[in-house]
Structure formats: C-alpha cells, structure tokens
Amino acid sequence: MAVDGVSLSVPEGSITGILGPNGAGKTTTIRMLLGIIDPTSGTRSLLGHDRPLEVARAVGYLPEERGLYPSMPAAEAIAFMGALRGLPIREGRRRALQLLQDAGHEDWAKKPIRTLSKGMAQTVQLLGTIIHEPKLIVLDEPFAGLDALNQQKLEQLIRDQSAAGVTVIFSTHVIAHAERLCERIAIIAEGRAVFEGDVDEARGKLRPIVHLRTRSESGPWQSALPQSAKKVGGEWRFELPASGPEPLLKALIDGGAGIETLSIERPGLHDAFIAIAGEAAAREMGHVPASEEVA
C-alpha cells in the first residue's frame, strides 16, 4: 500500500497507536520509519537520526510476519534475537532465562519452538524484541491471532515497558487495544494520515451523549430535547447541547419530565474513529456505528 503525506510525531516515553483497516498503509509507514524501505519524498527521523539503520540496535521491532527457527529452544531463540541487535550471546542467554522467569514461563526455556502454541511462540518473539533493552519498541499488529489471555499479557508487557521509559509504537486494527493503552494515536485511511494527536483530542471531536429516562411520556419538556434525539429501548439519546447540562436539567424539571435517570456518556475512541476516518474504514475494521448495533 502506498502512503501519501503521512506525518507523525511520537513523544519520547509515550505509547502511540497507529490505527487503520488492513491495507490502509500502517505497515508501509512503519517500514519507512525503520529504514526497511525508503520514502520517495519527505523526511524521517528515528531517535534523532535521519538514517534509521544507524540506530537499529536501539530499536526492538516485531514485524507482522512472525519468524522463528522451529527447532531452536525458546531461550536460545530469545538470545539469538538479542545477538542480532549486538547483545553478546552469553549475556543474551542470561537475560532470556530471566525474561522467561519474570513472565512465569521458565519451563519453556528448553522447549523447541515447534512444540509451542501460536500464543506461546509469539510471547517468545516478543521477549526477543525487548531482550536488548531498546529505547524504542515497534510492534506491527502484535495482537493478531492471540487469545484474550495472551492479549492481556501483551498489553501488560507494553505498559511495563512504557513505565520503564521506553517509547512504544504499535499498529492495530482493533480499536479496543488502542483505547486501553494509548496516550496518542495516528489514524491512517487509504494511505493518508487523517488524524494524529492525543486520544482525548480525538474523542473531543464528538459531543458527549445524554441518556435520559423520564416518568412522563410527553409534555412541554420535550421542547428542550434537540431534534436529533431518539428514543432507544425506553430512553432518550442525544448529544449534550453546547449550553451544557444545567439549562437542560432546568427545562426538563420545569416541564414536568419526571427524571428517572440522566447520565452523560463521553464518546469512546470507537465513535471518534468513525467520525474521523469515516464509516467505510470502520466497516473494513469490523466496526459499525453504535446506532446500528442498537438496532
């Protein structure tokens, strides 16, 4: 996938997610950033260097296409990946055993890769990605193919690395992972970056949603509701007016609505993604608007 005019800035020590449907250009963007392929125009800087391969040993990279030697024991595979980044093999073996122990998998150390499940093998490759203690970790679709338990473990590993001061970039087409983990996101659709900034900034592009239940079926209070208000499952749903909740509450009370419940829900990243990238991109990622989910 060709990309056009993608501009990204990743603060040191942050967790940044690159979101977009399959084929949007996420992997191409990552490969250009790391120096695996060269852009035809524009500039890039990785850890302060405009030649990414010069700082490759400070980077841990997990590509979308996994690759481990099937006959190699897990600990050796981790140590070998460290050696590829300049870590002496003896130190790599020591660190590999420690990483497996810390992860609660020391019993995997001597097991050949071919005897491990897909999730176990991916965990080994992830440990090999961080064994040389990189300053930057780049993970391309790291959650693909993992069950819920292994996804949870990977999320915790990402948090632990960030807490240690490591910068983390990961691409995903699963919005829930980005919402739980990221401080910043970039949304790529059809080869273009359509948004880049804080998660709160993305969510702030939509107004909060009011959920209202009343004892009264109708009355003067209804004039306080926006024309777009819809009744779904016995409750009214509509965007919070720009004037805020106080005038709305007063109008409902004065109009005799008989408020049973009223809650204000801040839009999630899922809804922000649809608003920014468009419904078509959301459908490609397996997401549909909340209104359609209710219906």
Mind explaining what this structure looks like?
There is one protein chain. The protein is of the alpha/beta class. The chain folds into two domains: 188 residues, 3-Layer(aba) Sandwich (Rossmann fold), CATH 3.40.50.300; 58 residues, no CATH class. It is 36% helix and 18% strand. The chain has eleven helices and ten strands. The strands form two sheets. Strands 2-3-4-1-5-6 form a six-stranded mixed sheet, sandwiched between helices. A four-stranded antiparallel sheet has the order 8-9-7-10, with no helix packed on it. Helix 2 crosses helix 3 and helix 2 packs parallel to helix 4. It is elongated and about 80 Å long. The C terminus is likely disordered.
Looking at this protein, list some descriptive labels.
alpha/beta; 10 strands; Rossmann fold; four-stranded antiparallel sheet; disordered C terminus
Topology:
Blueprint: E1 15-19, H1 26-34, E2 59-62, H2 74-84, H3 89-102, H4 118-130, E3 136-140, H5 148-163, E4 167-172, H6 175-181, E5 184-189, E6 192-198, H7 199-203, E7 209-214, E8 230-232, E9 235-239, H8 245-254, E10 259-265, H9 269-277, H10 279-284, H11 290-294
Parallel strand pairs: 1-4, 1-5, 2-3, 3-4
Antiparallel strand pairs: 5-6, 7-9, 7-10, 8-9
Keywords: ATP-binding, Nodulation, Nucleotide-binding, Transport
InterPro entries: AAA+_ATPase, ABC_transporter-like_ATP-bd, ABC_transporter_ATP-binding, P-loop_NTPase
Family: Belongs to the ABC transporter superfamily.
